[in-house]
Structures are given as C-alpha cells and as structure tokens.
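request received
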Amino acid sequence: MVTIEKVHAIEILDSRGNPTLMTRVTLSDGSVGVAKVPSGASTGVNEAVELRDGGSRYGGKGVLKAVKNVNTALFEAVRGIDPTDLRAVDRALLAADPSKGKGRLGANAILSVSMAAAVAAATHLGLPLFEYLRTSVLDKPAKYLQPVPMSNVINGGAHAGNDLAIQEFMILPVGASDIREAIRCLSEVYHVLGKNMIEKYGRMAKHVGDEGGYCGFGLRSTRDALDEIVRAISDAGYSPGDDVVLGIDAAASGFHKNGTYTIDGQEMSAGELLDFYIDLEKTYPLKTVEDPFDETAFDDFAEYVRKTKVQVVTDDLTVSNPDIVRRAVEMVAGTALLLKVNQIGTVTEAIDAAGIANAAEWGVVVSHRSGETGDTFIADLAVALGCGQIKTGAPARSDRVEKYNRLLEIYDILSGDCGYPGHDFRTAWRNY
Ligand code: 2PG
Ligand code: MG
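response:
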C-alpha cells in the first residue's frame, strides 16, 4: 500500500500578488502531488474561512499560520493514509479541524492538502488527474465530456475599477464542435472586442480586470457592455445566439444595500431588478445568470427561476456547501450550482455538492476564483465531473489561460475522444 509520507507547504503569491499556499504531498513510493490554492474577492458570507495572519506583513494577508498548520497538524492528520482513498484523506482533514468553516486551521490550508493528495494519488497510479478523479473518486466510467467555457471578457463590480455594477460579462462558444474550436472562438472574439473598444472609447478601455476581462472604461451600463460584446461576436465572424451566447455573473451582493440594488445609476427593488434581467433576456442571447440577487435572498432567486428560462446559477448563495445546496435545491432557488473547491475546503465535499445538484437535475459550473495561480486542478475536475460547464476567466493572463491550455492538453490526451455539449451545456452531463 502506498501512503502519505510527507506534507510540506510554503507561502507563494496569487494573481493579485497576495499570499496563498503551495503544498507538496510526497508518498511512500516517491510520487509527488503539488497544489496551489485560489482566493476570492467577492466572497460569500458562508464560505469556508481563509486563515490569514493579520498584522502588517503583506497588509495582514500573509498565510504563515496556515503554512505552519499544514506542516504540523494537517501533516500529522494524514500521515500514513493511502491517498488513493481520497475520502479517507478528507475525513482525516475534517477531523483535524471540526470548527465551523474550517477557520481554526484554515480552509486554505486544508484544501491545499486535499488537492495535493489527489494529484499525488493520480501520479502514483500513473493516471491523468481527470481520469483518477472520475474513475476512482467518482467511480464513474472513463467516458468524457469537455466543458463549455464561460469566458469573462468584460470585468466589473469587485473585479475592476469601472462604472459597471455587474461583475462578469461572459461569452459561451456553444456553436463550436470541440474544445479547440471553442477556445479559438473565445480568443478571436476577445481580441476583436479589445480592438473595437479602443476605437470607440480610447486606449484605457483595453485595461484588464482581475480575471483578464477588459475593464471597458467608458462603458456606462450593463447594456453598453452587452452591446459591445454582441458587436464583437459579429465582427469576429460568429453569429450571436447561434455560435456564441452570453452569460453574466451579477454578484448582486456587491451592489445591494438595505434591500435596494444600485445598478446603472438607478435604485431598484428586487422585483424591479428581476424585470431588468427579464428585459435583458428579450434583447440579448443571454442564457445564464449567476447570483442575480443578494446572497441571502433565497426567495428572490426562486421567484426568478419561476419567471425565466435562462440558467440561474447560485454562487454566493450556496458557496459549494452541500447543506446549503440542499436547501437551495428544495426551494428551487436556482437551476445550476457554481462549484468552487475553496468555498468548502476539500475536494470530496465539493464533489458531493455537485452530486446533490446532479440528482436534482441542476447544472454544475466548475469555477476559478478571481485570485488564481497557475494551478489547473479545476480543468481536470470539470472533465472528471463531466458537468459540461467551466468558468475560468478571459482567454488572457496565465492564471486564466493555463486552465484553457490544460483543457486543450486533456483533449489531446484523449485523442479527441470526448464530447462537447455546445447548446446542451445545461443538460448534457446527465448522460455522463
Ligand atoms: C465569482 C468569482 C469568480 P470571486 O464571483 O464567481 O469569478 O469571483 O473569486 O471574487 O468570488
Ligand atoms: Mg460569482
């Protein structure tokens, strides 16, 4: 039997230049797994807790306490466990920190060990990570579905210093025949969009936000941003609605205060905001809307689901937490779950949250964080789940692009023997 022999973490930087953890798990046969942990900016109140040092070092954001916890308590917790049983690893991690939100040892510390153990197990078995996760952890057949990328080409809200309340404006290349064509489409539209915006708004418009999407200085409203994206899709030679559809992550908690939403220079009630989204659907090929209301507004989410045909994605509302996902499913407060492993803190808990969504016939979107590293775990996770959707930013900046590159590599490893859901991105995974 192979066992975990060594666990060692160091402090590194994420894409915003803030500290995060890189953890290396070494097995008794010498196999190694490395993982780097992401970090959000628009974090949900119920997310698992990142342990930060406080004080003046790195403006209080250092992670030396979390690093120490990995190298001592968490190492002791998983030492001697067979990592090919990832659930046993995660059980040991959870037992080491039963506190609410994993705040005592830090969800960032715990996740780094869970991810690195999975990578080490795959290395030991001689399998690509996606295959290990699918066939061993999920216990599903080696039949693969690539995800449709939801690519955030204009950044707003907490991810950019501009006038846009909506955090993410995304394109989904649903007309592509495979992931290679999908990524080509993203890149082509992204570049035409940049060129168009320079011509119309000046060079400042091409600056980028946290996820590599353009800031679009000069864009004043949600409709300004969507108009530019539709124009870019056409100018790049694609058909809006057929080849490429649109998505937004409103991240509405960011523009919500005391029951009122402030967006595009207007103050709106939840009901008015709902009508605003329905109007957008009438004008644009908008097919997926994430966090349309505040992160506590389960009833407003449910009302929107009753009134719309677009996919309603829950992120800050459900924070990848199986218990909260169950509540949202019961209330039909969404039709898809955004899945971020660091919101919950272990790989198998995230997989369980996806399982609940799948059983309820919800979609699942595997997602990056706005603070990322070059780690590509989520690309493998999306393929392993076969969920058919991934959100991993603009086709620019290596923290985002590495995930796309990994999807291209996976396509090559599988010699193209994998599906691409296209327009069926919400439902295709039920057959996988
Ligand atoms: C989101 C994410 C990722 P953050 O809201 O969906 O795009 O942002 O990581 O800042 O929470
Ligand atoms: Mg979100």
